[in-house]
Design goal:
Length: about 280
């Protein structure tokens, strides 16, 4: 199998072209688990598979977390696969990508910079506090797309100086909290300036912090825009792996358009030789 290794702000992925490889879909979860295992294989946060479109798009994106579970969508992954689609001839300067959560439109800004329209928020609950170990945490709940990709948006004071292990344990508890039947991506954030946010995401399916989360940044900015704490226009979100920019169009109490802009990086192209497969 031929593969590309890419990352978007440190969120890294392996990409396979199933229009050429013709891998049975039932094998993809095992392939994801094997190839995404760091130290034992290529290593990545997730596996993306470009497949035949079903609804008139340029191609379909199948996304698998590193544990083999299916992901509805991935913002940083979508930006990377948009570049992959452009550079492999699957799409043009504008990319129409079908995902499990709905169609995503991408736009090539320059060689490395891509902008995508994230799936629309289908659920936003601004005041959904949760309790863990006797402590009550302010929380908002957001789902993007249909079926919805679930996000908990949690303010956390002094996030940049937070104890890593304490934050990880809290992320682990909130990720499987009974308040979230589908499980959730836990997005901790801190406002550090005007339209400037620091954010960290404990990701469902990875079961740890990732260097960045595109849909997570979109969920955070959507909440803050509705709360009047961000303008919604080119809001800067810093994460461990880099910086993303979010534009959120507000109409009364709804977010009607949500855009994610950020860098892509092609790390390697080659052939999978993993003998465990």
């Amino acid at each position: 199998m031929k593969f590309w290794k890419m990352n978007g702000a440190g969120n890294d992925f392996i990409i396979l072209n199933n229009l050429e490889e013709h891998i049975p879909h039932e094998r993809l979860p095992q392939i994801a688990r094997t190839l995404c295992e760091r130290h034992l294989s290529i290593g990545a946060d997730g596996l993306m598979v470009a497949d035949a479109p079903q609804e008139g798009g340029d191609f379909r994106m199948l996304f698998f977390n590193s544990d083999g579970s299916i992901g509805e969508m991935c913002g940083n992954g979508a930006r990377c696969i948009c570049r992959y689609g452009y550079e492999t001839g699957l799409a043009g300067e504008v990319q129409i990508v079908e995902t499990t959560a709905g169609t995503v439109t991408g736009e090539r800004i320059d060689r490395r910079l891509y902008r995508i329209r994230l799936n629309d928020p289908t659920t936003i609950q601004l005041d959904s506090p949760v309790e863990a170990d006797g402590v009550r945490y302010a929380c908002s709940y957001v789902e993007l797309g249909n079926p919805g990709l679930p996000h908990a948006v949690v303010p956390y004071a002094n996030l940049r100086e937070a104890d890593e292990q304490e934050l990880r344990e809290l992320g682990r508890k909130l990720r499987r909290h009974p308040a979230f039947p589908k499980g959730v991506n836990v997005n901790f954030f801190e406002i550090i300036g005007e339209d400037h946010i620091f954010e960290r995401t404990f990701e469902r399916g990875v079961e740890d912090f990732t260097y960045a989360c595109g849909t997570g940044t979109g969920a955070v900015v959507a909440v803050l825009t509705l709360q009047g704490k961000a303008s919604g226009h080119r809001v800067r979100v810093d994460m461990t792996g880099g910086t993303l920019f979010i534009d959120a169009e507000r109409v009364y109490s709804q977010i009607t358009d949500l855009y994610l802009t950020g860098p892509t990086n092609t790390v390697a192209r080659g052939e999978v030789m993993d003998e465990d497969l």
